[in-house]
Amino acid sequence: MIKEELDITIKDLLEAGAHFGHQKMRWNPKMKRFIFEERSGIYIIDLAKTMQQIRNAIEVVSDVVTQHKTILFVGTKKQAKTVVKECAENADEFYVNARWLGGMLTNLTTIRKSIKTLEKIEKRIATGGEGLTKKELSNLTKDQQKLEKNLAGIRTMRKPPGLLIVVDPYQEHIAVAEAKKLNIPVMALVDTNCNPDPIDYVIACNDDALKSVKLILTTLTTAIIEKKKEMKVVTKGEKKPTLKTNIDENIEIDVSDTETDKEV
Question: May I ask the CATH architecture of the domain 1-98+161-254?
Answer without folding.
Answer: 3-Layer(aba) Sandwich (3.40)
